[in-house]
C-alpha cells in the first residue's frame, strides 16, 4: 500500500468538490488553474462544467497545466420510457465517450440511471428489475462504441439510497455481475469505480474488490460518511470527518494492484461549498495525507 | 397471494405511524383505542411508548381490545465500547424479551446497532467488521434467553444508509448468514423482519426471501420510498406514494408461506405526523387495500 503521508502526488480532484466557492459557482477554468497551482496532478471534471467552459478550451488548459484525468463525469442514465429516450441516451453517451477521449481521461464513469422520471420527482413505473435490464442493454451497446474509442467504461455502484432516481446498480457484486456478462475476458474495457461513500457499508466489499481484480478497478473515489447525514445528496464529509475507514478500503484496492489516483469527490451544500475554494483544496490535500 | 382489496384484516399498525397527531404526541392508550375502533386487529408498539403508558396497563388494554402484536419494537443495539456496555445491552434486551412475552408478541424485532456513539454524532471507532462481530455475539447470547421464553427474535436488516448509526446488518443475505450461523436447524427461534423500505432496492431480494423460507420470515413491514426523500429517518411515504412495488415483494414473501400481518410503519415528521391520526389511519386502511 502506497504511503500518502509525505505528499499528494496521488490526489485527484473531482471538480464538483470546489464547483462552488463561498456559495458562488466557480468556473472550471479557475478550478483547473487552482489545482495546477496547488500541485494537484489530476482532476475529474463534470460534463456540464466542461460544456460551460468549452471542450476545446478545457482540453487546451488540461494540457497546458499538465493535468491528467482520473475519470470523466459522467455517462449513464440509460433507462428511458420509450425508444426515442433510449436513442437519446445512447447518442448522449457516445458524445460523453468522445469528450472523454478528447480530454484523454482514464475512464468514463457511468452513473447508470434508474426509474425514468424519479429524479424529476415522478417515476413512470416501479419496475426496478426492468430498469436494471435496460441498464445492462445500454452498457452493452455503449461498450462497443467505447472499445473502438479505447475509452474504458467504469460502472459506479451508487449507494442504495439512490436506487430509485440515480443508479439501480447499487453494489459491487451487482456491477461485477454486469462486467462478467458483458466482458467475460476482463479486457479492461469495462470495470468499476469504487467510491467509498457508496460502498463502505457493504459486508461483501473486500470480497468483491478481490473479485474485481486489477483489470476492473478503474477508479477510486474518496470522501466520508457523516453522522448525522442531513441530506441524501449534498452532505458528504471531508475525509477524516466521518466513519469510513478509508485506508482499510484503499488497502484492499491497492492489494489488487490498483496504482491510480485517489479522487476526492465531495458534494456539500452546507459546509464545503460555503467555504473558500482555497481552504477546501488545502484541506483536501492535508486530509489526503492524514486520512486516506 | 392473499387478496387485501376487500378488507383490512391483515393490517397491523406500527404505533410509530401515529405517535404524533397534528404534531403532538399521541399516547399509546389512545392509539390502541383508535385501532380497535377502526377494526385494526394488530399493532406493533414501541418500548418507549409502552413504558410511558405502563406495561401492565398496555397489556390489559391489548387484551381488552383483542389486539395481537405483529411484533414488538425493539431490541438490539448490541455493540458497545466496553464490557459494562455489553452487559447493559444484554440486560436491556432481556427485559425487552420479557415485555414482548407479557404482551404476547409474535416476535421481538432487533435493530442491531452499529458503531458505538455514532447515533449521538460521534462514533468511537470506524471498525464496522468489529461491530458486526459484536452484533452476532450479542444475538447469540440473547437467543438462549429468548428460546427459553419462547420469544422469536426477528433481525431487521436496515437500509445501508443506517449502517453507521442504527444497524450494521444491512441486507437480507447478511441477516440470513447470521441466522444460519446461530440457528442452523431453522427452529423458528431466529428469523428476519422484512421491511420493504429497507430492502426494496436489493437486487438479491427475491432470492434471499426464498432462502429465508417460511421458518425465518417473521414479520413484514410496509411503507414507501419517496422521490425525493428529504430526511434519512423521518420522511417515509404512505404505501402507494412512492416507488416500491409492494405487492410484488409481498407476493415473494407469501409464496414462502408467510401468512401474518402486513405492518404499516411510517415515520413522517413533515407530513403524516402533522395530520390528524384519524386521517392517517383511514389512509393506511385505504392504501392497505389498494397498494399493498
Automatic annotation (TrEMBL), chains A, B:
GO MF annotation, one: isomerase activity
InterPro entries in UniProt: IolE/XylAMocC-like, Xyl_isomerase-like_sf, Xyl_isomerase-like_TIM-brl
Keywords, in A-Z order: Isomerase
Highest taxon above the source species: Bacteria
Limits of the Xylose isomerase-like TIM barrel domain: 33-278
Gene3D superfamilies the UniProt entry points to: Divalent-metal-dependent TIM barrel enzymes
Name the record gives this protein: Sugar phosphate isomerase/epimerase
Natural source organism: Caenimonas sedimenti
